[in-house]
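User: Run a structure prediction on this.
Assistant: Running it now.
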Amino acid sequence: MQKYLKMLEDQVQWIAIGIGGLFFVWMLWSYVLQTPVSVMVAGKPVAPGEVDQLIAEGPLVRVEAAIKSDVAVPQMPVVPFRKNVIDELAGRTYHVPMIAGLNVPHHVDLGLIGPTKGSENGSNNPNLAQNLMQQVPLTPIAVFTDSAQGRSTVNKSAMAQPNLGGIPNANPQITPADIDWVSLSFKVDPKEIAANYVAAGVPAYLNSQCLFLQVELLREELIDPDTDRWSASVTIKPLANVVLLPYPGDRAPLASAAQYDQWAEKNQADIIAPAFYVVTKGDQWYEPGKSNPNVVAAPKIEPVPLPDVPKPTPPRPTPPKPPRPTPKTPKYPPSERAVPDPDRPTQLAQAIPPMFEMPPGSGTPSNPAFGQPAGAAVAGAAQVPAGKFDPGTTTGYFEIRAHDDTVQAGHTYRYKLRYRLRNPAFNMPRAAIPAVAAQFGVASLGSAPTRSIKIVDRVNFWVKRGVVGNKVTFEVYKWENGQQHAKAFDVGVGDMVGSTDKDVDYRTGWTVVDFRNHPTDQADKEVLLMDQQGHTLRRSFSSDQANFKKLMNDLKNEVDRANTGAAAATGS
């Protein structure tokens, strides 16, 4: 290594002179022999000073030749934007944009309602102003009829995208789930829609342009039963098995409204009467107002024929007794005579006992439901339009059905319904003023609140055997996986009532904190329980057997039916 270092030290000056020479040669080549800056023009390198010359000899010559050419310049019409805006604001423009599904019906004589021939804005037509609609027709308020509820295991078949063509999706996503559900039905009388058309001055040729656009279910939750305080309304999302096209808005752009209009015409059933999930276990879904198939009817007892008994010998006739003298009615002063009570029914059949009072929403079309106006019932059969319809020629009534699969056990709810109809004069500037013709949908007001609907708890428990030593036995019922389950648990102070057993979660959330003497039954003891929020509860064998007797029998029957069905399925 020392040998090479000594050699470098002896020759270092020549190495430096060689490196400097190489650098000098590179600089001479780059800045003297070659052009320092160049660009590619027409496929060849060009120096900066040559660009202008190339432009002058090429493109500039062609532009000058085109300018001096004798070919006529095409005319470019200028749109009178100012005049068009003024005419639009004044309602004097009557062009109909050619958008699919939104054109004037082919049988309409536009000359009768539009500008006269030879008039640019229709000012010469004396009947124009009075023929134009000045307001949109009101949408009638829906009337609640009935509800259904249950607890089921369902298949949530969600389509990947909105069904634009009205064809069922061939590849739904199956998602089994345990849900509590409520289904509600409302009625809309088409005769009310037709009457509102007349009041708004809808031309007869537009009556057939009615269409359901949207249905919104609004839910309120009971917060304080003592003061009857309810929460603010929240809009319930549609079920996952039918994906609806998002509503574009009442004053949507024409393109968005046209797309939604075509979709809604093919999917009226999905809008006003969507199907429920496929139920695999638990309560079967049923239409509101129909009999509940999940309630087991009491067995019918057939009358037993009595054996033949010989007819008795008729008794001998006895002589009639002399009539008793009719007592004389005392004559009271007018102030002491009986006065009929106007509040007392004249016939006993007219007085309905409180125990037979019908709940709101029950009844038949001929017997209006309690809590509903006398005219709420509409004669005829329920209708689901196949597309656009004429309310004046529609018989029966429209039944709007809505579902809620987001209710929670132990909570109480009530509902309202709001829906939208298509404005028959939408995009019809020959029939309505611009403000009316620009409105796509017309929403109804919310319906009157339904009756309160209580969702039963999924977990129920009571004392099955009283306190013995330092233990008490609770029986816990839990609805899970589409059926009712039951199990008894022996717990002491500090233990939670219920645990997980065979994939069933029986945990109640209540913990035993103390055993105390019963205030009225010396042979029984009270069990003091507390939940995670600090709420306390007192339970005892005697009180639970008295308070939950019916619920015990109902849930026991559900467990027996579930066990019987499982045994039949396995063949045991």
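The CA atoms of residues 424 and 457 lie 47 Å apart.
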